[in-house]
Amino acid sequence: MQSMIPLIPEKAEQDAASERLEEKKQHSGFRIADAANRYAYGIFLTKLIPKIISEFTQFGKQSKKINNIQRGE
């Protein structure tokens, strides 16, 4: 047998409003976190990856020079 809880309209309305507010807070927090992640990822793609590629390219050129010197070329 189910227990019957009397439904008070004001309480139900207040609970629904609280739930909607909580959902909005969670959603806005998610949007802020998502925007921060996109910003950080954008910096990573536009700044750090080209820098890393440049460093590896420079390292490769130096390694070639060292190998050529060691071989006597």
Describe this structure in words.
Residues 1-27 are annotated as: Disordered. Residues 10-26 have a biased composition (Basic and acidic residues). Helices cover 86% and strands 0% of the residues. The mean pLDDT is 79. It has one helix at 9-71. The protein is built from 1 helix and no strands. With 73 residues, the protein is mainly α.
The whole-angstrom Rg is 30 Å
- The chain-level structural class is mainly alpha
Give the overall silhouette. rod-shaped
Largest sheet: none
Order of helices and strands: H
Q: Summarize model confidence as the mean pLDDT.
A: 79
Strand content: under 5%
Helix content: over 70%
Low-pLDDT regions: none
- Straight-line distance between termini: 93 Å
The number of helical elements comes to 1
Q: Give the tally of β-strands.
A: 0
Region (Disordered): 1-27
Biased composition (Basic and acidic residues): 10-26
Which secondary structure elements does this structure contain, and how are they paired or packed?
Layout lengths: L8 H63 L2
